Amino acid sequence: MSRKLDGRTAIVTGAAQGIGKAIATRLAADGAKVIVSDVNGPGADAAAAAIGHGAIAITCDISKPDDVANLVARAGAVNVLVNNAAIVPFIAWDDIDLDHWRKLIDVNLTGTFLMTKAVTDKMRAAAVKGRVINIASNTFFAGTPNMAAYVASKGGVIGFTRAAATELGKHGITVNALTPGLIESDGVKSSPHANAFEFVGMLQALPGRGQPEDIADAVAFLASDDARWMTGQTLNVDAGMVRY
Fold first, then answer.
1. Catalytic site includes residue 150
2. Fold of the domain spanning 9-237
């Protein structure tokens, strides 16, 4: 790997498995000290042990301010934040209720805000020119069915990314979003989304099934100095399913 992140510390939320673990693995291979964060404590511990390179695990529910404060305090100086943690449901429109809506907004959108605010406040205090990468979803562009609250929350992440970039640019902090398509991750393979690969494949410009490493490679670019002149953007990584 490139070692472009030597001497830097990165927090990756939702990193016990799937896309988050792949991102943490890639950033560690590029030289970063990685904080593997997840609400699943044992899963985070196992992921950090598998990643190596000095990775450590910290349990955190990103929707809880006290958990976020503890995570950021224990992480020390942070150069890169990857907001990956999210709830990904498959719920028909007629089955959505207010509790479901609020839970998804609390984790997927408010959690992204809490983490970004806490980490970038710390970056600003230390005059760190940091990187924030928010994992959104191409469902925002597609309006995917059976995911109304999720699509709304990820649309909010894209809007938040643009606003945060405006607020933080003067401090040398970049904020970008990345929108994966359907990825053959552990979570997807154990959910109803696993049945969608054939249909999604027909919509893609490139054949095949997206892998967590495809997203990790794009995150590594956004985390590096190669993306120093890029902020407030949404990078779509879905084999050309959505073209805009």
1. yes
2. Rossmann fold (3.40.50)
Confidence of residue 207 (pLDDT cuts 50, 70, 90): very high
Q: CB neighbours of 45 closer than 8 A, spacing ≥ 6?
A: 57
Q: How confident is the model at residue 236 (pLDDT cuts 50, 70, 90)?
A: very high
d(CA 69, CA 222): 25
**Nearest-5° angle of CA 235, CA 75, CA 77?**
80
Ramachandran assignment for 127, one of left (phi > 0), alpha (psi -120 to 50 degrees), beta (any other) = left
- By DSSP bridging, strand 131-135 and strand 174-180 are parallel
Token pair for 111: 């959690």
Catalytic residue among 150, 175, 200, 215: 150
Amino acid at 186: D
The pTM of this model reads 0.96
Domain positions in the chain are 9-237
User: In whole angstroms, what is the distance from residue 10 CA to residue 27 CA?
Assistant: 8
* Sheet of 234-237, strand order: 56-59, 33-38, 9-13, 80-83, 131-135, 174-180, 234-237
Which has the closest alpha carbon to 11: 115, 110, 107?
Answer: 115
